[in-house]
Design goal:
This protein is globular. The protein has a single domain, classed as Vaccinia Virus protein VP39 (Rossmann fold), CATH 3.40.50. It has a seven-stranded mixed beta sheet with strand order 3-2-1-4-5-7-6, with helices on both faces. 41% of the residues lie in helices and 20% in strands. With 218 residues, it is α/β, with parallel strands linked by helices.
């Protein structure tokens, strides 16, 4: 449990949403056992709704981990045959992600790139309907310009962990060793909330989610 919403509200939402099955349930159990961070249940549901609502066909993800959100987004695009490109720098996570992608049977629709996102983003040349930013929290601002360049007008930039266990909103929850990340995340929020190309909403679910719409060219 975090400090984003009342615990009883969070508990109720997670209980009322249906349980995942198959590969997704297995990944949830693996994440819990090995303390691997994956998107919260309510965030997972919203990601799929958003991908479906804009009929996303091309998605970019920064931060694969074990490929839980990767495959959720891929599954959300199954009716239109959409494709996801995902970036991960951690060797052990890449190995686990590859196993899960193969096991899911969706490997033809997933491109996993191993490397530092700051480097990889500069070499991508596709245009994406949706970009899910879930990588190194202190580097979101460094990713932003490249993400906006890759995001098509009318597309969505979704930034996870944006309230960072409540530390972004108040120093009451601040941890001294996390102060640099906290300050950088606050700066990122200021940027996307006041960016001339973006309309942004901040959603207090999970660990905080920002949804930014890139304005269409006139």
């Amino acid at each position: 449990m975090g400090n984003i919403t009342d615990k009883y509200v969070e508990k109720y939402i997670r209980e009322v949403l249906p349980e995942q099955k198959g590969i997704f349930k297995e990944m949830e159990e693996y994440a819990e056992e090995f303390k691997v961070p994956i998107v919260h249940k309510e965030v997972a549901a919203l990601l799929q709704v958003l991908a479906k609502s804009i009929n996303a066909k091309r998605v970019l993800e920064v931060g694969t981990a074990i490929a839980y959100s990767t495959l959720l987004l891929c599954d959300a695009m199954k009716l239109n045959g959409g494709h996801i490109t995902t970036i991960e720098r951690n060797d052990s996570m890449v190995l686990e992600a590859k196993k899960n992608i193969l096991k899911s049977g969706m490997e033809d629709r997933v491109r996993l790139i191993q490397g530092d996102a700051q480097d990889v983003l500069k070499f991508l040349d596709n245009e994406y309907d949706l970009i899910f930013l879930d990588g190194a929290k202190g580097q979101y601002n460094e990713f932003l310009n490249d993400c906006l360049h890759l995001l098509k007008p009318g597309g969505l930039l979704i930034s996870d962990n944006i309230l960072f266990k409540g530390m972004i909103a108040t120093d009451m929850y601040a941890i001294r060793r996390k102060r640099t990340i906290t300050n950088r995340m606050r700066a990122y929020l200021e940027t996307i909330c006041n960016h001339s190309e973006l309309d942004t909403s901040i959603i207090p679910i999970g660990d905080g989610l920002a949804i930014s719409y890139k304005s269409r060219r006139i």
